[in-house]
């Protein structure tokens, strides 16, 4: 038997004029954890969809367990023991946790009639395999994105997979949850499972992967062991250029210290947080750090009017404002880029352009009519600015890769030109190069006098990007760190 459980040879795939995959070879050894890396839009999800049979390749062959396939179908692929957890999770939001967990097993048993009790037993077993503790009767749409991710993983595991593909499984997870996932992955590996793993986080790749394939612009440019690959080489293979990760924030002169705070929050309490006070000056970039459950997302949501405060005040430019809805917040110049962007931020079937300009239609209409030219100009400006990888911004948003979809959501809110811009996990799921583009963009925006608030549990990001950060723990504000004190070590200590 060959060492390789999966051996893809010369895989090509085009979408119209876009060559998403150009003659790609991908070989994965039996029983290893193999990382698939590369910038947003380089073709990672596309090759995964060929392996899962979801979207077969145009040419090339896939050899699995010694048998050669010219095109796989989802049924054959699942039958072979291949299970994929897609980037968008593919959980069913309007079903309960129990139904989501049981659905695969129920479908593959081809039982037409199954009882609630049977379903519950299956769901319980699935939860046990992962040590999960979720309310089986909760509707999945009400859960945090991390729980959705765990449900997708649990479900795939229970479907008796021998080859598990995880397309960016850790984007929405906190460090603690990532640790748990990696523990699970190591356990599965011990039992002989092969794992193909997509990630943008270098430290995670080194931690969990035996080998790696790096893709760039639809081609596989490196494949080999993970350990011996240096960070510099990794970045160079990925981007085709040398990127220096310097701390290049230049706050001096940017922060308007003389003005009234653009946003001030005083003794604010709401669902999930209590007695929070802070202020942000125009031109300043403020971080809100804290682990999942610390209340940072909840605080953002209340400031943006998604939920209502139960106590305290919000002030804009020194004046108290009454924010009871998103409309109130928008009217007061506040915008929020949400955390769960793939489900909250984007209309997949409509064009990239419309997605960007949707929130400020009035800006592009004259006498009630839409001036399309203006709209196109605005949208393509943003597409250039944050490097959204697309042939044409009139294409539906669903033709974009996951990371590029994230950039579109960002553009959408930036185009409203808010006075206060709140971003929750602004670079989740985007590649290193794009990350730095986004940091630069946020600094440029701050220089124009915008107040930027970044909620994030990526501590390196907070250090690199923010002038100052407040720290939240169990719903309370536990401190504030600024200037030279703002280091990953200090933040780590403060959030625990
Ligand atoms: N249905 C489609 N129609 C047109 N173009 C598509 C379609 N699906 C993917 N593409 C294009 O193919 C290229 C590769 O996309 P893919 O989703 O594989 O990227 P990726 O490596 O997974 O990126 P990310 O890290 O952002 O998820 C992109 O340029 C994308 O726009
Ligand atoms: Mg992808």
Could you please describe the fold and organization of this structure?
This protein is α/β, with parallel strands linked by helices. It is built from 17 helices and 22 strands. The strands form 5 sheets. Strands 6-7-8-3-9-10 form a 6-stranded mixed beta sheet, sandwiched between helices. A 6-stranded mixed beta sheet has the order 16-19-20-13-21-22, sandwiched between helices. Helix 3 (97-108) packs across helix 4 and helix 4 (116-130) packs across helix 5. The longest helix is centred in the middle third of the chain and has 16 residues, at 175-190. The radius of gyration is 23 Å and the shape is globular. The protein starts with a strand and ends with a helix. The model has no long low-confidence stretch (mean pLDDT 86). The site of adenosine-5'-triphosphate (ATP) has 20 residues, from strand 2, helix 1 and helix 14. Magnesium ion binds at residues 44-45, 87, 167, 401-402.
């Amino acid at each position: 038997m060959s060492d390789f459980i999966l051996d893809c040879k010369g895989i090509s795939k085009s979408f119209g004029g876009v060559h998403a995959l150009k003659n790609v070879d991908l070989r994965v050894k039996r029983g290893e954890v193999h990382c698939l890396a590369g910038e947003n839009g380089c073709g990672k999800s596309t090759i995964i969809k060929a392996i899962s049979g979801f979207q077969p390749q145009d040419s090339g062959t896939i050899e699995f367990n010694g048998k050669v396939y010219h095109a796989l179908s989802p049924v054959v692929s699942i039958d072979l023991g291949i299970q994929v957890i897609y980037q968008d999770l593919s959980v069913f939001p309007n079903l309960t946790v129990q139904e989501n967990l049981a659905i695969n097993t129920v479908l593959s048993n081809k039982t037409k009639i199954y009882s609630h009790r049977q379903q519950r037993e299956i769901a319980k077993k699935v939860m046990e395999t992962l040590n999960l503790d979720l309310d089986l009767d909760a509707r999945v749409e009400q859960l945090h994105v991390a729980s959705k991710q765990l449900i997708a993983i649990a479900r795939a595991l229970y479907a008796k997979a021998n080859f598990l593909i995880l397309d960016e499984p850790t984007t929405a997870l906190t460090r603690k949850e990532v640790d748990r996932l990696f523990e699970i992955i190591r356990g599965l590996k011990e039992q002989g499972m092969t794992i193909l793993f997509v990630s943008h986080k270098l430290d995670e790749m080194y931690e969990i992967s035996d080998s790696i394939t790096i893709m760039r612009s639809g081609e596989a440019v490196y494949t080999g062991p993970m350990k011996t690959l240096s960070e510099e080489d990794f970045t160079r293979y990925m981007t085709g250029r040398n990127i220096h990760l310097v701390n290049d924030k230049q706050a001096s002169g940017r922060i308007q210290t003389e003005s009234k705070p653009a946003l001030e929050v005083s003794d604010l309490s709401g669902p999930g947080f209590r007695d929070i006070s802070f202020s942000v000056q125009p031109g300043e970039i403020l971080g809100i750090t804290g682990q999942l459950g610390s209340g940072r997302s909840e605080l953002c949501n209340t400031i943006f009017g998604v939920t209502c405060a139960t106590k305290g005040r919000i002030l804009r430019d020194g004046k108290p404002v009454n924010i009871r809805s998103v409309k109130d917040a928008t009217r007061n110049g506040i915008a929020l880029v949400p955390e769960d962007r793939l489900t909250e931020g984007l209309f997949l079937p409509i064009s990239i352009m419309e997605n960007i300009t949707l929130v400020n239609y009035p800006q592009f209409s004259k006498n009630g009519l839409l001036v399309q030219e203006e709209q196109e100009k605005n949208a393509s400006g943003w597409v250039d600015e944050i490097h959204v990888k697309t042939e044409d911004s009139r294409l539906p948003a669903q033709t974009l890769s996951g990371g590029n979809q994230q950039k579109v959501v960002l553009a959408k809110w930036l185009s409203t030109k808010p006075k206060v811009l709140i971003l929750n996990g602004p670079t989740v799921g985007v590649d290193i190069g794009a990350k730095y583009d986004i940091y630069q963009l946020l600094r440029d925006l701050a220089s124009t006098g915008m107040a930027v608030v970044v909620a994030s549990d990526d501590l390196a990001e907070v250090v690199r990007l923010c002038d100052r950060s407040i720290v939240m723990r169990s719903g309370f504000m536990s401190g504030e760190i600024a200037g030279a004190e703002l280091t990953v070590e200090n933040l780590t200590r403060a959030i625990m």
